[in-house]
Amino acid sequence: KYNAKKISVDGITFDSQMEADYYCRLKLMLRAGAIDGFCRQARFVITEGKNGEKGVQYVTDFVVFYPDKTYRIVDVKGMKTEVFKLKVKSFREKYPKLKIELEENV
């Protein structure tokens, strides 16, 4: 989408160079002890499926875990699509205590 080219790092295919760069930065932070860990592609249910219909999920790029037991939900975006904006709005309504942070210039 929008001129982003898929790229592989460590056998993982990322949707963009920006996302791959952020992953590499997280690996360095992990090695340095600045973070306790991270996970990719965490899924949050926005709406449940009913009557055999598939539910809607928001899939974030990363969740980053810090030594002080805090975490960040991070999405790496070059462009905010309409679908992304709608899913974020639905996410915020369903999970008002959780915050999505955008990394736009990695």
- Uncertain segments are none
Q: What's the total helix number? A: 2
The main pleated sheet reads as: 4 strands, mixed
N-to-C SSE string, H for helix and E for strand: EEHEEEEEHE
Strand order in the sheet with the most strands? 3-6-7-8
Mean pLDDT: 90
Q: What form results from the Cα inertia axes?
A: globular
Look at the helices and sheets and give the structural class.
alpha+beta
Rg, nearest Å: 15 Å
N-to-C CA distance: 18 Å
What oligomeric state is this?
Answer: single chain
Strand share of the residues? 25-35%
Helix content: 25-40%
Total strands: the figure is 8
Secondary structure elements and pairings:
Layout: E1 7-9, E2 12-14, H1 17-32, E3 37-40, E4 43-47, E5 56-59, E6 62-65, E7 71-76, H2 82-94, E8 100-103
Parallel strand pairs: 7-8
Antiparallel strand pairs: 1-2, 3-6, 4-5, 6-7
Describe this entry's structure for a reader.
The chain is an alpha+beta fold. 27% of the residues lie in helices and 31% in strands. The protein has helices at 17-32, 82-94; strands at residues 7-9, 12-14, 37-40, 43-47, 56-59, 62-65, 71-76, 100-103. The strands form three sheets. It has a four-stranded mixed sheet, covered by helices on one side. The protein is globular and about 45 Å long. It starts with 6 loop residues before the first strand and ends with a strand.
